[in-house]
Amino acid sequence: MNGAPEVRLSPPDARPFVKWAGGKGTLIGAIAERIPKDRTYRRYVEPFVGAGAMFFWIRRSFPDLPASIGDSNAELIVAYGAVRDDADGVISKLETHAHLHCKEHFYAVRAKVPHGETERAARFIYLNRTCYNGLYRVNRKGQFNVPIGRYDKPKILDRENIFAVSTALRDVELRPGDFGVLTDDCGAGDLVYLDPPYVPLSKTSQFTSYTRDSFGRPEQERLAETFEALAARGAAVILSNSDTALVRELYSALTPKPSFDEVQVPRSINSKAGRRGRIRELLIYHHS
């Protein structure tokens, strides 16, 4: 890997096929600038892949670099796997959802989880593209409970992008699970990007219920310990999070202390449109 090339987001490049709270499309350039330019990597690892904006940039820019991506949201990883392995089947199911889309169909689909992975993937994508604000939220039973969104003509199927994503995912390792497990084998030569559910800026800004398990202070503390362990094992590590006292406290205490950079990014997921503005975030990184 020799430097961070210019960011390209135009077709036919693969783009995120789901909407996701905290998507990194606007932060890619800033992250790319902090990838060391003087080394070759053996693997890219992303255990909080979400919509995958950074992953797709890596695949476009360094197509020969092996990659391992994962997430604690098992349904999301099922969707990635089905798009990779059965793009035609996913497209066929999405065509049906698009044809039947209405309020009654949305709630009928939301109420029932199919068994097959292709059907589960199409359901996941359909609900994501048509639910309120593109949020993913579940109740204590792990059931998706976001209401239908107010869209005149939601784009349920992007056929070209599904095929592009399928191609980008070839030979990529997909792993559902906890970030600690997904990074346990990382070490020298690995480039690891950590994009966890952010520490909330206020009591009303918590969008951390991506799975039935919350991501609170204990998980943030464990993530900081994981960051330190990865750095100690020789991995290049980059993490993004909100600029809060807790994040600064946790990562300032690490040995060696990582680098901190402040970045301004737009945020669009808020129940009140007037509060969807630019906010300050942190990029924290360590290069052995």
Describe the protein.
The chain is α/β, with parallel strands linked by helices and 288 residues long. The protein folds into two domains: 157 residues, Rossmann fold, CATH 3.40.50.150; 89 residues, Adenine-specific Methyltransferase, Domain 2 (Adenine-specific Methyltransferase, domain 2). It is 35% helix and 15% strand. Strands 3-2-1-4-5-7-6 form a seven-stranded mixed beta sheet, sandwiched between helices. Helix 4 crosses helix 6.
Shape: globular
Strand runs, count: 7
Q: Can you summarize the main beta sheet?
A: 7 strands, mixed
Structural class: alpha/beta
CATH superfamily annotation of the largest domain: Vaccinia Virus protein VP39
Per CATH, what is the topology of the largest domain? Rossmann fold
Q: What proportion of the residues form beta strands (DSSP E)?
A: 5-15%
Number of contiguous helices: 10
- How much is the radius of gyration in Å? 19 Å
Q: How many separate domains make up the residues?
A: 2
What ranges have pLDDT less than 50 throughout 5 or more consecutive residues? Answer: none
Sum this structure up briefly.
By secondary structure, the protein is an alpha/beta fold. The protein has ten helices and seven strands. It has a seven-stranded mixed beta sheet, with helices on both faces.
